Amino acid sequence: MVDEQAVQELIHEIITEDEEEEAVPVLKCLMEGTVTDEEISEKTQLKLNIVRRVLYKLYDAGVASYRRSKDPETQWYTYTWKFEPGKVTEMIKKKHSEIVEKLREALAFEENNMFFVCVNGHYRFTFDEAAEENFTCPECGSEMEFMDNSEIIQQIKHELSLYENNGFDGGPDPGMNS
Questions:
Q1: What is an annotated GO biological process for this record, any one (predicted)?
Q2: Range of the domain at 64
């Protein structure tokens, strides 16, 4: 099964903040097994239309699927919903890869550039950008000074190592501590 915290972090991205309180119990019902929207509504004490809205958002994101069946007596359709842990795992892996790639790009940028800053804290420029401004802040006219970015580099390296060493490989920690 997928790590519950990782699922909840993914839900933060799928569901709007005002719906999150309703989405968590719906998702827990789904994770317990295949159920109908009416059963989820009864179990969670949420209105059926709220349960359906959450389920369709989960469906649109690919973390839930449904099967429709027709009752031969009433001719009404019943929707049986199922949690899709494989899709969740795939989405978490993709997000993890994107974060690692962005960290690597940021690290390369920091390591391959020399930086200058306005002494009044307005801007940070690469060497080339600072040279175009004649090493003078365009906002206040103050002289720019060299900035040692070794702490930034160390922080990025640290964060990158956390993602790479505790990365999501189907294991318990997706490493989403940004």
A1: regulation of DNA-templated transcription
A2: 4-85
pLDDT tens column, 93-129: 888 899 999 999 999 999 999 999 999 989 999 999 9
**For 35, phi and psi rounded to 5 degrees?**
-145, 165
Q: Are residues 92 and 81 in the same domain?
A: no
Any domain includes 178: no
| Separation of alpha carbons 58 and 65, rounded Å | 8
DSSP state of 66: E
Q: Shortest CA distance to 30 belongs to which of 140, 14, 150?
A: 14
Nearest alpha carbon to residue 90 among 178, 16, 169:
169
Task: Kindly report the pTM of this predicted structure.
Answer: 0.63
d(CA 101, CA 91): 15
